[in-house]
Specification:
With about 575 residues, this protein is of the alpha/beta class. It has a domain at about 40-135 and about 190-255 and about 445-530: Rossmann fold, CATH 3.40.50.1820. Helix content is about 45%, strand content about 15%. The protein contains 19 helices and 13 strands. The protein has helices spanning about 1-25, 100-115, 145-150, 165-185, 190-205, 220-230, 245-250, 260-275, 285-305, 325-335, 340-355, 360, 365-375, 390-400, 405-420, 425, 470-480, 500-515, 550-570, and strands spanning about 35-40, 45, 50-60, 70-75, 90-95, 120-125, 210-215, 235-240, 305-310, 320, 460-465, 485-490, 525. Strands 1, 2, 3, 4, 5, 6, 7, 8, 11, 12 and 13 form an eleven-stranded mixed β-sheet that branches. Strands 9-10 form a two-stranded antiparallel sheet. It is globular, with a radius of gyration of 23 Å. The termini are far apart. The structure holds 2-acetamido-2-deoxy-beta-D-glucopyranose (12 copies). One 2-acetamido-2-deoxy-beta-D-glucopyranose binds near residues 159, 415 and 418. It holds the Pfam family Abhydrolase_4. InterPro entries: AB_hydrolase_1, AB_hydrolase_fold, Pept_S33_TAP-like_C, Serine_prot/Carboxylest_S33. This is Alpha/beta hydrolase.
Length: about 575
């Protein structure tokens, strides 16, 4: 009794220390409306150690009488003040999505960015138009219940039944009509060119003509757009997990995102075979056999879905059905973060083989929807952020080409994508398919080329195997930006944040601190393998370094903090955009 009481107190204390900030944030959200928005920045302390401000920008840069937007900003201040010779200015961040919150990104990942970058910069996050605390909000649904009603039947897999693809097609048409009726002006103002212009205005308000930046995933489209629009305002600038921006604006189909997706899966299977049966639960003696085992477990669900019925707490009984589409989606989510999710996903497959679908369900978008619907207490909560109600206005509204497609053409587009990867089944309906019927265009659009000599050369980062931003896209984009360098992180997953590499961390640090780019052709190894005994996971791998103690400590802290931030990144990339 005594022991267990003692343990309880002890673990509460540890838990309290680790999560107090998180809980405080959730339970007592900062009152953003108390901040006056203006075209100069005036910072107010918020969330313990941070500073917050609201910045006024025109809703449309092409028509400044169309109203204003109030952009929410957060800053993790540098240790040095503006007059200090060590102070290097601000870095802006974008977490991707589109629809990810830059406020939450800094709140959740500040320890990681700070440990990698060092103390010389202010780290600045902002909620892009239509997202989070930035106003006016993009509110298409009138309540969480209405959003749930819409998404509960939105197909996560277009090859689930004969009508799935068409169902997604007509639901996107409904969403487009709802958006026109309820949120037209905002939806026309959230395009990437407007957000890129906001970044310049924000930097100027911070006293900088040159924008320093680290954007991941869709943040690479935002970054490339900025660099193409304002090449003379490019400071130290990283785009990481790079999408093909040519295609983003000028493609009628998505022919690039899934180039390496099947390679991702093959590399995870190869890592499994190499790790052996004690570390990889679905181990077989060849990648072909691992693959066959996985498909066998999944295909069994096509004819025999599994029930989940959890009445551990009878007052909070939950139930669900795990079918092929749910499980397939859960496995797709897990390939974004194979270093953390690979062991979980493979254990989930073994559980499936034994008739237990709980674990695979927990990886799926449906489980995320359950969690979101429980978290939402009012319609103003960002229930839909990150799903197609924010993706479509940005992705479809940005397009220069006509992306309208008949249902028959949409089927063709899907079939072409399916030639690249099996995961087109789940990627297609939640991305470009919505553009087939999308009724709106952004008022400010970028219609230029991605050829520019930037005032500072750009650093691009690509993983050898990235499920939705293949390294080929980083190379294509680099070709247009004079002096830019592609750093290849030889890992599997989405963006460099999916797997820690000391070598990548040091390259980023050196670029931000000294402006020095890595040599062209640099390949950085990840510190760990996908399936690895826990005792090895603290090794610093892939690079020979002699670090001063504080730098080594900083990198260990970075690695730990990245682990803590992964749950946030998974929600940001929910359900699956870049
Ligand atoms: C906002 O402006 C009002 C009126 O000028 C002022 O009273 C208030 O202190 C300002 N709030 C902040 C947080 O600066
Ligand atoms: C600019 O916006 C205002 C307010 O919405 C509108 O009345 C006006 O027609 C717009 N001007 C142009 C050129 O679109
Ligand atoms: C920044 O300042 C804080 C408090 O003054 C100090 O604890 C911390 O070590 C400093 N960090 C760096 C990286 O210098
Ligand atoms: C749908 O899935 C089935 C089974 O995997 C496959 O045979 C078929 O080719 C897929 N449909 C398309 C259009 O690719
Ligand atoms: C959506 O709006 C368009 C344009 O007004 C219209 O042609 C179409 O019929 C509408 N769709 C539905 C399902 O009402
Ligand atoms: C792999 O296992 C299969 C049967 O499970 C066996 O026939 C084959 O010889 C094994 N191959 C190797 C290289 O061990
Ligand atoms: C079942 O529900 C309980 C809470 O009622 C929860 O703690 C537990 O994790 C759930 N089990 C599974 C397998 O999801
Ligand atoms: C399924 O596995 C989970 C652990 O992942 C366990 O909690 C649960 O009891 C199992 N369900 C059944 C029906 O065995
Ligand atoms: C984009 O620019 C090209 C030429 O630079 C022009 O022909 C085309 O009409 C423009 N498209 C749009 C939608 O503005
Ligand atoms: C898919 O690939 C096959 C074989 O390369 C080709 O014949 C077919 O035309 C492709 N389908 C589409 C829709 O691109
Ligand atoms: C990448 O890592 C794999 C092992 O995971 C290794 O076989 C390969 O040679 C590495 N490639 C490069 C370019 O370093
Ligand atoms: C930046 O350059 C200075 C001088 O060359 C060097 O001492 C320092 O270690 C470099 N910093 C990083 C992070 O590489």
């Amino acid at each position: 009794m005594r022991t267990s009481t003692g343990l309880l107190v002890l673990s509460n204390t540890l838990l309290g220390a680790a999560s107090a900030r998180h809980l405080a944030r959730r339970d007592a959200p900062f009152d953003w409306s108390s901040l006056n928005s203006s075209t100069s920045l005036s910072w107010t302390p918020c969330y313990d150690a941070f500073q917050c401000a609201r910045f006024t920008a025109p809703l449309q840069y092409s028509n400044t009488s169309a109203g204003d937007s109030q952009i929410a900003l957060i800053m993790s201040p540098s240790n040095f003040s503006a007059g200090d010779p060590n102070y290097l200015g601000s870095i802006l961040f974008n977490p991707g999505g589109p629809g990810g919150s830059g406020i939450q990104y800094i709140l959740q990942l500040d320890p990681y960015f700070r440990a990698i970058i060092g103390p010389q910069y202010d780290l600045v996050g902002f909620d892009p138009r239509g997202v989070g605390e930035t106003t006016p909000p993009l509110s298409v649904f009138e309540s969480p219940a209405e959003a749930l009603q819409f998404y509960a039947t939105y197909p996560l897999n277009v090859n689930d039944s004969v009508s799935s693809l068409a169902r997604a097609y007509v639901q996107a048409e409904i969403l487009g009509n709802l958006t026109v009726q309820r949120a037209k002006d905002v939806a026309e103002s959230v395009g990437t060119a407007a957000v890129a212009t906001d970044m310049l205005q924000i930097s100027r308000a911070l006293g900088q003509e040159k924008v320093n930046y680290w954007g991941v995933s869709y943040g690479s489209v935002l970054g490339a757009t900025f660099a193409a629009m304002f090449p003379q305002n490019v400071g130290r600038f990283i785009i990481d997990g790079v999408s093909d921006s040519h295609q983003w604006y000028f493609g009628t189909q998505d022919t690039s995102s899934m180039l390496d997706t099947d390679g991702v899966v093959a590399s995870i299977f190869a890592a499994c075979v190499a790790a052996g049966p004690s570390l990889c639960p679905i181990w077989e003696n060849s990648t072909e056999l691992v693959e066959a085992r996985v498909h066998h477990a999944l295909n069994a669900l096509r004819v025999a879905p599994l029930p989940i019925f959890n009445n551990t707490d009878p007052a909070a009984t939950t139930f669900a059905v795990v079918d092929y589409a749910t499980a397939f989606d859960g496995l797709f989510q897990s390939i974004y973060f194979p270093y953390s999710d690979g062991p979980v996903a493979t254990a989930a497959l073994v559980a499936l083989e034994h008739g237990n679908g709980s674990l695979v369900y927990s990886l799926s978008t449906e489980a995320q929807l359950d969690a979101l619907s429980q978290d939402c207490t009012s319609s103003s909560e960002a229930f839909g952020a990150g799903f197609i109600d924010i993706i479509a206005p940005i992705l479809c509204g940005d397009a220069i080409v006509d992306r309208h497609r008949s249902l028959a053409q949409a089927r063709q587009d899907y079939a072409a994508m399916r030639n690249l990867s099996l995961f087109a089944d789940t990627w297609y309906p939640t991305t470009i398919e919505a553009c087939a019927t999308w009724p709106l265009q952004s008022k400010d659009r970028f219609n230029g080329s991605f050829q520019a000599n930037t005032s500072t050369p750009i650093l691009l980062i690509g993983n050898t195997f990235d499920p939705v931003t293949p390294i080929q896209s980083a190379r294509n984009m680099s070709a247009g930006f004079g002096g830019s360098v592609v750093l290849q992180q030889n890992s599997t997953g989405h963006t460099s944040l999916s797997g820690f590499s000391t070598c990548t961390a040091l390259a980023i640090r050196e670029y931000f601190q000294n402006g020095t780019l890595p040599a062209a052709g640099t390949v950085c190894q990840p510190d760990t393998a996908i399936f690895e005994a826990p005792s090895n996971s603290s090794a610093v791998g892939g690079v020979t370094i002699s670090l001063r103690d504080d730098a080594a400590l900083g990198l260990r802290e970075a690695k730990r903090a990245l682990g803590d931030g992964t749950a946030f990144l998974k929600r940001t990339w929910f359900p699956r955009w870049a």
